[in-house]
TrEMBL record:
Low complexity bias locations: 118-130
Protein name, as recorded: S-adenosyl-L-methionine-dependent methyltransferase superfamily protein
Natural source organism: Hibiscus trionum (Flower of an hour)
Annotated spans, Disordered: 118-151
InterPro entries per record: Prob_Methyltransferase (IPR053223)
Composition bias, Acidic residues: 131-146
Amino acid sequence: MHKPNVSKSRKWLPVGLPVMLCLCLLACILTGTILSSNIFYTQLMLRTTISTADISQGRFVLPHSLRSQISDLQTKIGVLLEQLRGASAESEAVALFADQLLHIAISFDKLAESLSGSYDGSSSGMNEVSAVDEDLSEDEESEIEQGSDTGRFNSGELHNYTALKLNRLIGKKNFLGVEVISPSVGLACASMASNVDRFMDYKIYRMCPDDWDIAQKVMISGCDPLPRRRCFSKTPPRFSKPLPINSSLWSQPTDTNILWNRYKCKEYSCLVSNETLGKRGFFKCSNCFDLSKRGWEVSTNESTSAEFTIDEVLRLKPGEMRIGLDFSPTTGTFAALMKERNITIASATLNLGAPFNEVIALRGLLPLYLSIGSRLPFFDNTLDIIHSTLFLDGWIGLDLLQFVLFDWDRVLRPRGLLWVDRFFCKRDDLKIYLDEFSRLHYRKLLWRIVPKTDRLEDEYYFSAVLEKPLRS
C-alpha cells in the first residue's frame, strides 16, 4: 500500500483520508466485524469533507467528531488484530492478512498523530508551534475572561495535548487496563479558551515562559487541572543546594533559590518586613514567612482561645497519626511541627502574592499546589489527619463547603481526625455552618466556640477535632 506523504497533508487530505478510512472499513467488513457499513460510511464521508478553499487558505481544523471516528477505528482494528492473532492459524492467508492489517493500523496511527499536529495550519512542524516570544512582560496584567470565548481552542499544542494517546502496541491494554489515555483538562477551561491558549502558546523543547501567575489565575477561576506542557522550567540564576533537613525546618531560605520576577517582594527580608504589611497580597497569612514556632504557642483557656495545641490533639490518638494534609495558606509551619513528631504532612496552598510553595519546599517539606475547586489527589480512606486553619471561613458558600468537606471525608481513613482550626463567620451564620459540619456525623472529640475579638464585627471562631466514623 502506498504511504502518503504526511508533510504534504493539505494536498493529500481530501482524497487520501477517505481512502485510508475506506481501507480500514473494508478490512473490518472482510473479517466479519459487525458494522452498519452503509450508514457508517455515509456519515464518515460527510464528516471528512474538507473544502478546497479552507485548505488553500490554511484554515483546516480537524473536527472533533472525525478525531473520535479515527480513535474508534483504531480501537476496532486493534481488537480485530488481537482476535486474528488468537485464532488458529491454519492458513498462511490469515497470517498474511493479520500482518497487512497491522501495517494499516500503524499507518493509521501515524496519520492521526500527524493530523493532530496540523490544527494550527502551520507547515513548520511540531518543533515550531508558537511564534510568540517566550518571556512575558513583568508588568503585564493578565485578566481572566470568562464567558466571552466561543469555547474553541486555537492552540495547536493544546489540541495535540488533548488528543487521545494510544498505547504503543495498538489494541493492547496497558497495565491500567485501557487502550488509550485521555489527558485531563478542567471543565472551566472551555469558558476561558483565549487564556488557556495563551498559556499553551510557547515553544516546545525550549524554556517555559515565566507565566506561573497566569496559570494560577486560570486555576483559581476553575480551569484546573491545566494541560501539561513540553517545555523546561527555569532555574534561579544563582541556585545553591538546600540546607540539610536537620536545619532547614526553621532557617530562613536563601534568596538565590527563588525566582522573584512575579512577586512584589524581590527578597525574603521584604516578606517579613513590617513596611510591606498589608501590601503583599497574602493578607490571610501576614506572619507566614516568620519561620518560628511563636504562632503556635497558644493559650488553652477555653473561654478566650479557639485554638488547640498539637500535643493536645495528638494525645487523642497516641501513635496513630502518621500522614496527613494541611489545607491552609501556609509556608509549612504546621507540617514542620508535625515532622518533629515524625508525622508527614502535605501542605496544600497557592502562591498568594508570595513564594509559599517555594518556601515550603526549601524547608524540606512537601508542597501541594492545589486550588480549592480541585478533587484531592489522594485515594479513599488513606490519610490519618486533615488540618485547616484561616482558610475555610464565612466567605465560603454552602454548596462549595459541602463538596470540600465530603472530599476530605473521602480521603480520611476511618477513625481519622478532621481538625478545623479557627473557622470564623458572623454570629447569625454560625448555626448554618455548624449544620454543614454535622452532616458528616463525626464524633466530637474537641469542640470550642468563642467570640472573635480582633475586629468590631459580630463574629465567632469555631474550632473542633472530629473523628470519622466506621461505615458499612
